[in-house]
Amino acid sequence: MNVRVGVLAVQGAFLAHAEVLCDLGVEAVEVRQPNNLEGLDAIVLPGGESTTMSKLLVSTGLWHPLNGLLHGGLPVFGTCAGMILLGTSILDGRPDQSCFGVIDIAVRRNAYGRQIDSFEADIDTAVGQFHGVFIRAPRIEAFGAKVEVLGTHNNEPVIVRQGTALAAAFHPELSADVHLHQFFITHVAGLAPATIDTTAKGR
């Protein structure tokens, strides 16, 4: 079985995500227009600038079909700005900024500081340890009862899941650690574990 995972490629760190997926033996499909959504088994929303990504999703015609797929259960993994897009509320967002509302979280942009405040941290969870790169990272300030907190940093949630949607406040794709992508594909999306390179340790 060939696993096809889309990577939203309108802005942000989409190439790094695509490289991780390829390292795991997954076909990475760059999503730039609506027809790129056809036949996907899952999709990744990368980090970047959330307001710009929101506008580009609308201008490319991707917003409505992607919204329908996400609410229809298409597995999705959002990192940093991608997490903001998946939430239900952006606490300091622009009036014209939208989010998909598939994970019941309220998110504040750039809450961990400016670019100069970037840092890396190992995050212990019930499903393993993940290495995260925090760059102008958003903070989850509230979450609903259906949200499962999978990982924390300084007692604050940084990895959350709701159904087939997974989100991280950091950039796992910028580290050498592929385990969070493995977890998304095999456990959240439930896609053919036998086809994924579960022996991959890093890049």
Describe the structure.
Helix content is 22%, strand content 30%. It is built from five helices and twelve strands. The chain is globular, with a radius of gyration of 15 Å. The protein has one domain: Class I glutamine amidotransferase (GATase) domain (Rossmann fold). A hairpin with a 2-residue loop joins strand 7 (119-125) and strand 8 (128-134). The strands form three sheets. Strands 2-1-3-4-12-11-10 form a seven-stranded mixed sheet. Strands 5-6-9 form a three-stranded mixed sheet. The longest helix is centred in the first third of the chain and has 10 residues, at 14-23. The model has no long low-confidence stretch (mean pLDDT 88). By secondary structure, it is of the alpha/beta class.
Low-confidence stretches: none
- Shape designation: globular
Annotation field: number of helices: 5
- The number of strands is 12
Structural class: alpha/beta
Named CATH architecture: 3-Layer(aba) Sandwich
List the quaternary state of the chains.
single chain
Q: What's the number of structural domains? A: 1
Widest sheet: strand ordering? 2-1-3-4-12-11-10
Task: Spell out the helices and strands N to C.
Answer: EHEEHHEHEEEEEEEEH
Annotated CATH homologous superfamily: Class I glutamine amidotransferase (GATase) domain
Radius of gyration, taken over Cα atoms and rounded to an integer in Å: 15 Å
Question: How far do the termini sit from each other?
Answer: 24 Å
The CATH C-level name is Alpha Beta
Beta percentage is 25-35%
Helical content band: 10-25%
CATH topology: Rossmann fold
Largest sheet: 7 strands, mixed
**Mean pLDDT level:** 88
